[in-house]
Specification:
The complex is a heterodimer of chains A (about 625) and B (about 450).
Chain A lengths: L1 E6 L3 H12 L4 E5 L13 E3 L3 H10 L4 H7 L1 E7 L9 E6 L3 H11 L4 E5 L2 E7 L2 E7 L4 E9 L8 E4 L2 E4 L11 H7 L4 E8 L2 E3 L9 E3 L24 E5 L2 H9 L22 H7 L7 E6 L6 E5 L7 H9 L9 E3 L2 E8 L16 E3 L9 H20 L12 H12 L23 H11 L5 H23 L6 H9 L11 H6 L5 H7 L6 H12 L1 H18 L17 H10 L4 H5 L6 H15 L2
Parallel strand pairs in A: 1-2, 1-9, 2-6, 9-20
Antiparallel strand pairs in A: 3-5, 4-5, 7-8, 8-9, 10-11, 10-19, 12-19, 13-17, 13-18, 14-15, 15-16, 16-17
Helix pairs in contact in A: 1-9, 2-9, 2-11, 3-4, 6-8, 11-12, 12-16
Chain B lengths: L4 E4 L9 E6 L3 H5 L3 E2 L10 E9 L2 E11 L10 E6 L3 H13 L3 E2 L4 H8 L5 H12 L3 H11 L2 H25 L14 H27 L1 E6 L6 H11 L14 E8 L2 E7 L7 H18 L2 E7 L6 H10 L4 E6 L15 E2 L8 H11 L16 H22 L4 H19 L5 H10 L5
Parallel strand pairs in B: 1-7, 8-10, 8-11, 11-12, 12-13
Antiparallel strand pairs in B: 1-2, 2-6, 3-4, 4-5, 5-6, 9-10
Helix pairs in contact in B: 3-4, 4-5, 6-7, 6-13, 7-12, 9-10, 12-13
The chains are: A alpha+beta (about 625), B alpha/beta (about 450).
Chain lengths: ~625, ~450
Amino acid sequence: MYDLIVVGGGHAGCEAAHIGAVLGLKTALVTANIKNIADMPCNPAIGGTAKGIIVREIDALGGLMGIIADKSHFQIKMLNNGKGPAVRSLRAQADKITYPKNMLKALDETENLTIIEGMVEDLIIENNMVKGIVLANKQEISAKSVILTTGTYLKGNILIGKENNPGGPHGEARSNHLSDNLRKYGLTIQRLKTGTPPRIKKDSIDFTKMHPENGDDKYYTFSFDTEPLYKINDQQKCYLIYTNENTHNIIKANLDKSAMYGGYVTGIGPRYCPSIEDKIVRFADKPRHQLFLEPESLYYDEWYLQGFSTSMPRDIQEKMVHSLPGLENAQITKYAYAIEYDAIDPLQMKPSLENKIIENLFTAGQINGTSGYEEAAAQGLIAGINAHHKLKGIEPLILKRNEAYIGVLIDDLVTKGTKEPYRMLTSRAEFRLLLRHDNADLRLREIGYKNGTIDKERYEKLTEKIATINNIKNILRNTNLSLNEETKEKFTQANLEIPTSSVSLYLLLKRPEITIDFIKKLLPLDYPNDILEEVEIEIKYEGYIAKAYKEVEKMLKLEEKIIPEDIDYHDILNLASEARQKLEKIRPKSIGQAARISGVNPSDLSILSVYLKKKYNK
Amino acid sequence: MFDTICAISTSRGVGAISIIRVSGNEAISKVAPLFDGKNLLEVPSNTINYGHIVKDNEIIDEVLVSVMRAPKTYTKEDIIEINTHGGIAPTKKVLETLLETGIRLAEPGEFTKRAFLNGRLDLAEAEAVENLISSGTDLERKLALNQMSGKVSRKIKKVRDIIVELMANIEVNIDFPEYEDALIITLDNLPPKLNEIKKELETLLEEAKIGKLIEQGIKVAIVGRPNVGKSSLLNALLDENKAIVTDIAGTTRDIVEGEIELKGIRLKFIDTAGIRKTNDIVEKIGVDKSLEIIKEADLVIHVLDNNEELTEEDQEIMTKIKNKTHITFINKNDLPTKIKLNSKDYIIGNTKKDNGLETLKNKIIELFELEDIKTNNLEVISSTRIINLIKEALSSINNALSNVDAKIPVDMIAIDIKKAWDLLGEITGETYQDELLDTLFSKFCLGK
């Protein structure tokens, strides 16, 4: 008898099992193939815009992804470095051999955690409560709670042109019955689609015709607790190329052969990650599209052709790839494919990620309609924590939209649902100025500590950091710029205008052209760079940050208007029928959440507010 | 579901007919037993039925009853409209009869409130209806109708579309930094786009000035020291134009003494103490009081006495109104001229003989460009709430512009731009914000 069984060993499953075990649950991770633990079937990268911040948040809350990524990449970049602090985000080219290996090692070293090989085909359900799982060989394993992180394996179908083969990303066995069984228990199942580009043999690539893309020449880590383990100069290059007229002609001439356009796919694919045929059709006026060639691993010689995902038949893929500069003689080692799979309707989840119909059953990752390793890992982490909290009778951890991208992600899923694989974007976060890369620990470590996932040592490191930040701010406040010849010279040297009056260094730093690095020339500040950066951001953008907090307050006021769980929407006769249906289905926790439901209009909210006032005096 | 309500929905006064409106799920069933004619429970929707309202076998009035069944009605509820024969007494009697059946008397604006709550009107429209109900002049009615039909919402939407396009571009730059498909928005190419939005908002505000003029009229203060003939000027203006005499308190603490219509625009004569009450009080008002009035007014008419030399008090008033839109009116031109003025910018006349009043009115028309208003299109904005939101949106865009100068990163400036977008969304109710509804509900006296 396990406290927790996690079904699936992908990025969601790993985090869920790890954190469950860390919290003291006797945990089993059940995967069809132990070799596929933390597999990266698509792009060889961890992070990216918004996603990189999610990795930081996972780390701040005690998850594994950041630590493992830091050990497993061969190139790292700070995206949007030229833009404001709110949108900076790390992306690492992660090694597809090393990452899973390091993850497996971490799981092996986790106490309370057992890894079991087996294909899960059913759940044991009693009185709408999960009691365990049933494997394909009919073996039953009982557990107090179950987290499903099945990725694309629920009735997965691989599509290449007209070919349609049941199976997972590497052609492995899929779960044939679990999604049907879930439907039987009352869950709504939807069919989603995603895709991946072809892989190319390294030796067959002519890199001289391509533009190299290097890693940054600065050291970064995802984790707040690790030191950089790489050398800047040892980073691998990626390469940029473009499609051309010839490529486009080949695609246009063969559209009917594509699984997508030939009408062989029923699932809904993501808009932000279209196949190359999609791009050609939808942006017909674009003469070229960017593609990136990225190494998958240092231990084998396959390269990933990012931007070229397609579901064309093999022979057409050959022609398409050979039309590209530097790939004239390329050897395709793995053809691009589209994959369809079953997912649940995320509106059937509570914000804790527990299922609304089946108690103690949680879901995380692609089964919830998301896309991306980071999104999956984040949900896995939260599902793991909340499975524990549920069993122990603790309030679930529900991060707010102003606290974390993870909060935005889960709130969007359970409030708006999704019809296409959901990817996190910075634009989805209305308070993205507060949800920065640099302050993920300041936002979340304490929450982690309170929820038992961050130990005392790491928590004390945080309180120390906060104290140091405040201390530096005070120093800057209390130090006035002395306008002597020496300082004037420093301004001149840095090509900066010399201030006309003596201001505090705090106010000086607020000026757009003044950096903390320059302040260091006026006043020795011997502190780590990340702390100085934090100070700089908080001072420089103080006004904007204060404005954002005001907006947060407004939102929180609406979040505090709680809708009782037993509310009967049929009792509110004046609601528009669409709004009633949505409210009935989603059962939002607050007026604030209700306001984010599409189809619930201001007038519906007014009626709801009036009803609550009358009936519950809220 | 709301209870059933009724109210006299035509203006109270002596007219040919009055209409009593009943709305709610019991509207038809409660009125039917009182009606001697066809069975209202069975008549088709949108029919007018002749008959009598009868109570205790006594005919109260001869009426036409319109039956409109939910949901295609103004409130989206069942509606009965009883056209009574006019006269205050029978209408009141019918209303009382309805109230006796348990139908509740509607609060002001409650029909509109229901139309909004039942999802028939958006916020801008609901406000327009409010204006329509309280509108006095023809122009006002047209303005309200335009706002109600969503023309204003469409104008706002147009600006929002421009903003959202810019926002989307900035977001793409941020979320897909390596992709070249979109124009990179920089501090160099952002200002022209912001200026375009700014111009659109300024145009709306410029038009709103006219809207405000139509909706709120021109507040006129007649000032001058005692005994120069202020009240006789007011009376002359009011009498001649069959004044719309009202006792309605204005939006500010002042009292509107009387109104006249000039080219479709209301001139509202304001005074805090009531110039016309008694001559004794007028004597006491003096300069101090006048100064207070001046602050509130859009136009000041300064009355001087032709038969007396300028006093210190006169000159004090002249200094005070120097920077306000004002007209100097020299009264009593039938008496010998003793006054000496440096400026020639005055109108001389005589309120007793209606002498100079036309010139005075023409001067007002000229000052406020009233001649042009009727030919202007009337899709303008008049609601103070909407105007304030547009102003806030404009200031947000101005913030964005000054932040461009301060070299703030584009993705931060995006916050200002989004703010403007949200503010404009509030106008049509596209962004749900509690404060907005609180304000709205306080206006509609909701609660409990």
